[in-house]
Amino acid sequence: MHRRILTCFAAALGSLAVAPPALAGTLFVDANLATGANDGSSWVDAFQGSGGLQSALALAVAGDEIWVADGMYKPTATLTPTISFDMKSGVAILGGFAGGETLASQADPQTNVAILSGDLAGDDPAFDFPFGENSRHVVRGAGADATAILDGFTIQSGLAIGSPGSDPSYGGGLFMVGASNGTVRRCTLRGNYGIFGGGGAGHIRGSQPTFTDCRFVDNVSTPSGGAIDMRSNGNAIFERCVFQSNYAHSGGAVHVLGSHPRFSNCLFLQNVADQGDGGGAIHVKSSTLEIQNCTIVRNHAYEGAGAGILASTSTVDVTNSIVFVNYPSEIVGATVNVRYSCVRGGYAGTGNTKGPPLFVDGSYFEPHDFRLQVGSPCIDAGDNAAVPAGVVLDLAQGPRFIDHPLVMDVGSGVAPHVDMGAYEAHVVEHIASYCFGDGVASRCPCSNA
User: Fold this and answer.
1) Which pLDDT belongs to residue 443?
2) What's the order of all strands across the beta sheet hosting 331-332?
């Protein structure tokens, strides 16, 4: 009798051990919805209002996705600036929906703008410094691993302000510390501030997050890292990202200290360092930095050096990149290894050229077009071995390796050779322009259009 009971109990335990896991769920959020159950179970019954996303995050568990419709969302309905949106391991927070979609791939963040705002009182003046009640960090990494995903949002109006060097003074938009290794995709971080610490858009410390197809625009920090401040093994990876018009005393776009980040297929444009050491685009101290296939142009260091890159007691490897028309100087640093790159005035190293790179439109004013014209010395001139494994797209998400039929290969490796800079040359357009000079590919018998 006792043996039979034990046998049944053991069988029951065995069945529990092999029971399938619960199916992943989807939670729906729509700030503009005013009807329905407000329980997140469908688009019709989505969580409502500016607090809808926090309601979904409170219920989400590993394996869940949160689909967020266009609208504005805030970390709290109160004026408590220490409350943030916290990423969660295994949870994907996806913006860019209109409401009604049935597939995650239908999200369009450019059309359906979902905003995560730190302007808790809704009283920030346009194009001006935010007021003091704003969120210290709009989003926190919260120690989540790489399975934590934030995709398709605009993050704005964070105000990291506190006593100098304290956590509240770092990372107005994103605060990723203590093994916060989350994945951030297709996000725009705009108009965030870091005061007395660093990193207007984001602060990364002791973490290895990845950023793909993100934009960092018009962020401000005093003293350092207008967009991103990385310290103490802030070893982030940035792929196909744009850093534009960010401002700081040092490191107008990026400040790196004691870390090892990597930038690939990125554009640094019109970032400004106005005081201190300099580093209009990037200032790196006591660190190792990798820069591959980046375009670094028209950045400024008004009272310092290295408007493109400033390296202090650091090792910086620059490959397949364009560093051009930065004021007053392009690259400054004792241990900066430059290879297969285009640097204004020239730079010692294998495969380098002094240009000019011949951008389609490299003027100071909008619109910019930093693709390469036919005849550019940067076409088919890079080192294939320097392209990170798995990287197959350029900043415009076009193919990264194209053999241009009108250009002699001068790069390294087996053709097709990668181009220098963030953009691969558009071959069909070049052929059309070459044949007829009118840019109409269909009229060119030597194209496949």
Assistant:
1) 38
2) 85-86, 139-140, 174-177, 202-207, 228-234, 254-257, 282-285, 309-312, 331-332
Does residue 23 surpass a pLDDT of 90?
no
Average pLDDT over residues 364-384: 92
Q: Which residues contact 434 (CB under 8 A, 6 or more apart)?
A: 374, 406, 444
**Peptide linkage before 367 cis (omega within 30 of 0):** yes
Distances (CA, A) of 220 to 152, 247, 427: 22, 5, 38
Label residue 79 left, alpha or beta by phi (over 0 means left) and psi (-120 to 50 means alpha): alpha
Q: Please, what is the average pLDDT of the chain?
A: 90
Distance CA 398, CA 428 (A): 13
Tell whether pTM > 0.70. Answer: yes
Cis peptide before 328 (omega within 30 of 0): yes
Please give the C-alpha separations between residue 14 and each of 17, 19, 104, 222, 234, in angstroms, as whole numbers: 5, 9, 36, 59, 44
The burial class, CB within 10 Å (0-12 / 13-18 / 19+), for 397 is exposed
- State pLDDT tens for residues 205-240: 999 999 999 999 999 999 999 999 999 999 999 999
pLDDT above 60 (res 446): no
What is the rounded distance in angstroms from the CA atom of residue 250 to the CA atom of residue 166?
Answer: 18
Cα dihedral 253/257/260/261 (nearest 10):
-10
Residue with tokens 């199916």: 23
SS (H, E, C) the chain: CHHHHHHHHHHHHHHHHCCCCCCCCEEEEECCCCCCCCCCCCCCCCEECCCHHHHHHHHCCCCCEEEEECEEECCCCCCCCCCCEECCCCCEEEEEECCCCCCHHHCCCCCCCEEEECCCCCCCCCCCCCCCCCCCCCEECCCCCCCCEEECEEEECCEEECCCCCHHHECCCEEEECCCCCEEECCEEECCEEECCECCCEEEEEECCEEECCEEECCEEEEECCCEEEEEEECCEEECCEEECCEEEECCCEEEECCCCEEECCEEECCEECCCCECCCEEEECCEEEEECCEEECCEECCCECCCEEEECCEEEEECCEEECCECCCEECCCEEEECCEECCCCCCCCCECCCCCEEECCCCCCCEEEECCCCCCCCCCEHHHCCCCCCECCCCCECCCCCCCCCCCCECCCCCCCCCCCCCCHHHHHHHHHHCCCCHHHCCCCCC
Distance in angstroms (rounded) separating the CA atoms of residues 442 and 369:
23
